[in-house]
Design goal:
Blueprint lengths: L2 H8 L2 E3 L9 E2 L9 E3 L15 E4 L8 E4 L6 H4 L12 E2 L4 E2 L4 E2 L4 E2 L4 E2 L4 E2 L4 E2 L4 E2 L4 E2 L4 E2 L4 E2 L4 E2 L4 E2 L4 E4 L4 E3 L5 E3 L5 E4 L4 E2 L4 E3 L5 E4 L4 E2 L4 E2 L4 E2 L4 E2 L4 E2 L4 E2 L4 E2 L4 E2 L4 E2 L4 E2 L4 E2 L8 E3 L4 E2 H33 L3
Parallel strand pairs: 2-3, 3-4, 4-5, 6-9, 7-10, 8-11, 9-12, 10-13, 11-14, 12-15, 13-16, 14-17, 15-18, 16-19, 17-22, 18-23, 19-24, 22-25, 23-26, 24-27, 25-28, 26-29, 27-30, 28-31, 29-32, 30-33, 31-34, 32-35, 33-36, 35-37
Antiparallel strand pairs: 1-5, 20-21, 37-38
Length: about 350
């Protein structure tokens, strides 16, 4: 690929030699002369040798070859697939897979070795199941889904089109539901609901999505779920939400569209978050949050209030020291220094 090709693909403008060949994309901390470095932070440009071609903001490239455009980071969406060397795998059903006679596999799909596709499952067109994927009874997987190795999709789960599920994910495991009997015994509540994952959702490695006790646990169109996230039974995650790694979401939580939940945050059962909410990392959400709010801390509250509170906490040692000095002064005044 040449820089002219890159410009045509991304809608950018070539600076320098448009015929220059590149063979991949490199990181700013590992620049290479035969690769293209994508720079979206101005401070990084100084660390990249002039011999390395770059793609960066308009007006930022001088004395080197490159491509300028308005949003360099967004260019990765179009550039990286051109250099993805991971094998797509062969189309068809591996001899090492077990596909039930009453299951359906669409045209152009690939079922890897060790996969189990159970009775009544429907696999759409162009689906990839890597090795050792389990697909339960009555599961529906839409066209173009990519399911990585060792994923478990339990009975009656439904995935829309273009869903990407990374290794180790479990979808449709039982929700955490129990009652305590009069004699103290803990008795399981049957979990008879299902999970619906809508179009273009992505779920990161080793995350879990519990089936509903009854009804549906739903992740809506375009949501992006990080690794090691737990989504409990009967949750409803809104369209285009971002749930970052190590988040724990309790049962029956409702999160509105385009909200962001940052890493290690926790959301208590039956909490409702509005549209466009931002939950800061390690926050503990214990009450409903209205549209557009940014919250942080534990228990979580308005972010500006929390930052003032944290700033006040840092002043406590100095305040205590001053109080002790005042107490000493008063004692000395009363006793006359004796």
């Amino acid at each position: 690929m040449t820089l002219d090709d890159v410009a045509q693909l991304t809608g950018g403008v070539v600076v320098g030699d448009g015929a220059r060949q590149i063979r991949g994309i490199c990181a700013p901390d590992d620049p290479r002369d035969d690769m293209l470095c994508v720079v979206w932070e101005k401070g990084l440009m100084a660390m990249i040798p002039l011999s390395v071609p770059v793609i960066s903001d308009a007006g930022s490239i001088s004395g080197r070859d490159g491509v300028e455009l308005d949003n360099p980071k967004r260019s990765l969406v179009r550039l990286l697939p051109r250099f993805d060397r991971r094998a797509a795998g062969e189309i068809g059903i591996s001899p090492g897979a077990a596909v039930h006679d009453q299951a359906s596999v669409g045209e152009g799909s690939a079922i890897g070795p060790g996969c189990v596709v159970s009775e009544g499952a429907v696999i759409g067109r162009g689906v990839v199941l890597q090795a050792n994927v389990f697909v339960g009874r009555g599961v529906e997987i839409g066209d173009g889904c990519a399911i990585s190795a060792s994923v478990v999709i339990q009975d009656l789960t439904r995935l829309g089109r273009g869903v990407c599920v990374h290794s180790g994910v479990v979808i449709g495991s039982d929700g955490f539901g129990y009652v305590r009997e009069d004699d103290g015994r803990i008795v399981k509540i049957p979990q008879i609901g299902t999970v619906i994952i809508e179009d273009n959702v992505e779920i990161g490695a080793n995350s879990t999505v519990d089936r509903a006790t009854f009804g549906v646990t739903r992740i809506r169109r375009g949501a992006k779920i990080g690794s090691l996230v737990h989504i409990a039974h009967n949750c409803d995650i809104g369209e285009d939400c971002i749930i970052v790694g190590c988040v724990a979401i309790g049962g029956s939580v409702r999160i509105g569209r385009s909200s962001i939940v940052a890493g290690q945050a926790g959301i208590a059962d039956h909490t409702k978050l509005g549209n466009g909410v931002t939950v800061a990392g390690r926050a503990g959400v214990t009450k409903d949050i209205k549209d557009g709010d940014t919250i942080s801390g534990f228990p979580a509250r308005n972010h500006s209030e929390e930052t003032r509170f944290q700033a006040s906490l840092r002043r406590i040692p100095d305040i205590l020291k001053r109080l002790k000095n005042i107490e000493r002064f008063i004692d000395d005044t009363i006793t006359g220094g004796n």
